[in-house]
Amino acid sequence: MIRAQTESPAAALYLGVDAGNSKTAVLVSTASGEVVGAGRSGCGDIYGAPTPENAVAEVFAAVREALDQAGADIQAVVGAAFRLAGVDWPEDQRYWDTALTRQYPGMPAGRSVLNDGYAALRCGDPSGVGISVTGGTAAAIAARGPGGELWDMGWRGQHAMGATGLADEAFRAVSLAELGLAPQTALTEALLAHYGKPTAEALTHWLTRREGRASSRERTSCARVVTATAAAGDPVAVDIVRAQGHHLARYAGVAARRTGLARSGRPVTVVLSGSVLMAEGSPVAEELLAVLPTHVPGAVPHRSSLPPVAGALLDALGEGGVMLTDPVLADAVVERVTGTLPPREFLAT
Prior knowledge:
By secondary structure, the protein is an alpha/beta fold. The protein has helices at about 50-70, 90-105, 160-180, 185-195, 200-210, 215-220, 225-230, 235-260, 275-280, 285-295, 310-320, 325-340, 345; strands at about 15-20, 25-30, 35-40, 75-85, 110-115, 130-135, 140-145, 150, 270-275, 300-305. About 45% of the residues lie in helices and about 15% in strands. Helix 3 (about 160-180) runs antiparallel to helix 8 (about 235-260), helix 7 (about 225-230) crosses helix 8 and helix 8 (about 235-260) crosses helix 10. The longest helix is centred in the last third of the chain and has 24 residues, at about 235-260.
């Protein structure tokens, strides 16, 4: 349960939203960082939901739950950071700006809408400068440079990454092995057991048939099976995992160059988040960290214990006037946010 609000109902509130394909999470806090409301709903990605309107409805449902728990309405919010999967092009940002204005005409002007890749940035450095590398259902990479420059991968990424990438490459390997066009792999037995299918042909049929095909969640559910098979030494699975780590590191390098971080001559905070990278003993994270310095000189990896939605909340606080550039104040705010987060299971994917 969230701690009851300790400041007056009229106290200024801050709202952080992290919307992805697996879930949408929302936190509301006071200026001190005390979390006084939390909400959760489904897919908030306008590209991934059945319709863009469905994604908007899910985000608004989570916002409403968080504000209700805080005993406040939107007029109390003086800073809001919406970090949303699917905000990949200017028209996506305009779409959300229109939806937010229509839904919350009383919301103060202090709000920002960015791709969800930015959500975890302040989980590494409260100032928000650095690179965020997220490997969850998909991958999101974003960066903020020392002069405020922004860059995120969005649709510029040309490789499937995260759980989606692991699954897609594993399915390809199993199918090619069955056709005799690639080496045999332990992934075949592992995936057939995971999905309860008798043959590789039956698995491919289920994944691709016109009716009753596997859902996106079912497809990506094998990601841990792929990494476990790699950890057991299967060469094909090892190659898939290594490629994933290299892809993530290369795009992080692009982010560093596009935002001036590569030229700063200073250490570069690189925040890792997402279920694929944060899993205990993640071989994808190990490979990423092994090659990261080649692509991001001065990289200082940070595997935060804070969930990305907490980073979105810190964005709302920082953009709303709370001086997170002051290390002492920032540490106090982060400590308060950390100590008042909802239970771990509330934010689990």
